[in-house]
Amino acid sequence: MPWVQITLHTDPDHTETLEDMLLLCGAGAVTMLDGADQPVFEPIKGTTPLWQDTRVMGLFEADTDGDALVEYLSNGWQAHFPDQAFPKHKLEILEDKDWEREWMDRFEPIQFGPTLWVCPSWKAVPDPQAANLMLDPGLAFGTGSHPTTALCLQWIAQQDWQGKQAIDYGCGSGILALGALLLGAEHVMGVDNDEQALVATADNALRNNIDPSRIPVYLPEDTPAEQVDIMLANILAGPLMELAPSLAKLTKLHGLITLSGILQHQADAVIEAYTPWFDMHTVTQKDEWVRIDGVKRTN
């Protein structure tokens, strides 16, 4: 059966109203997507961030009268926002298809270095002898496809992890911590301000047959004070700069640090924030994003 879909372009202040109106009209599903390729990372605890240009899409059964739907939505909009024009919108007929299968087909195994792969659980692993991290895309950020995560995984694949202790600060799905553990790390703490991310990290550890004792998870305020050999932090430039003293305190002398989630024009400011404790010696770029690596100094 085909479907009728209406797509409306709006902003975070109006998405909830449009969602309610679409559901009142009988939408079988309402989806919100990024309308301008604007990434959203590490939301404030307890919040659900939206993009400044948000596409709100409602899916209706094929016999829905499209003109009547638009008229109803327009009237409802004017009742709520009499001084604002009805959002730009598009009405279209969608062919019947297996939407879940189409979504799953978008994800393929990704290789990082010679021995590390990130693989959706429903795909066959390309190299059974490699370290294969089985990870399903979900609500917690981190599948390996975004440049910030890819930059970190490339770095992780190049390190000697045997016997190492590490922290994955801003762990999201746990992808960095799990990659390190599969490559030989002894123990990696996952830290995140979102409890959902901590659950996702623990679940993904079990999916990859990793003993939970090797990857304990913590909210920032509960993080143990013990120092580690390697600090991983894929967050955003602003929080990274604020966290510099804390991450330095948690890193051993001569310990390694790698930072990502940084736009190219923010690199100098992040380096300056960490220079009191680290020699930040390498900047690696992918698209507009960079990764910054360093070593903790003795003075």
Quick recap:
The chain contains eight helices and 14 strands. It is an alpha/beta fold and 299 residues long. The termini are far apart.
Protein traits:
299 residues, seven-stranded mixed β-sheet, 14 strands, alpha/beta, 2 domains, 8 helices, Rossmann fold, Alpha-Beta Plaits
Count of separate structural domains: 2
Radius of gyration: 22 Å
The helix/strand class is: alpha/beta
- Low-confidence runs of at least 5 consecutive residues: 37-49
Can you characterise this structure?
It is a single chain. Residues 37-49 have low confidence and may be disordered. With 299 residues, this protein is of the alpha/beta class. The strands form three sheets. It has a seven-stranded mixed β-sheet with strand order 10-9-8-11-12-14-13, sandwiched between helices. A four-stranded antiparallel β-sheet has the order 2-3-1-4, with helices on one face. A three-stranded mixed β-sheet has the order 5-6-7. Strand 13 (278-286) and strand 14 form a beta hairpin. It has two domains: 3-96, Alpha-Beta Plaits (2-Layer Sandwich); 142-296, Rossmann fold (3-Layer(aba) Sandwich), CATH 3.40.50. Helix content is 28%, strand content 29%.
Task: Draw up the topology in text.
Blueprint: E1 3-10, H1 15-24, E2 29-34, E3 54-61, H2 66-80, E4 89-94, H3 99-105, E5 110-112, E6 116-119, E7 131-134, H4 147-157, E8 165-169, H5 175-182, E9 187-191, H6 195-207, E10 217-218, E11 228-234, H7 237-249, E12 251-263, H8 267-274, E13 278-286, E14 289-296
Parallel strand pairs: 6-7, 8-9, 8-11, 9-10, 11-12
Antiparallel strand pairs: 1-3, 1-4, 2-3, 5-6, 12-14, 13-14
Helix pairs in contact: 1-2, 4-5, 7-8
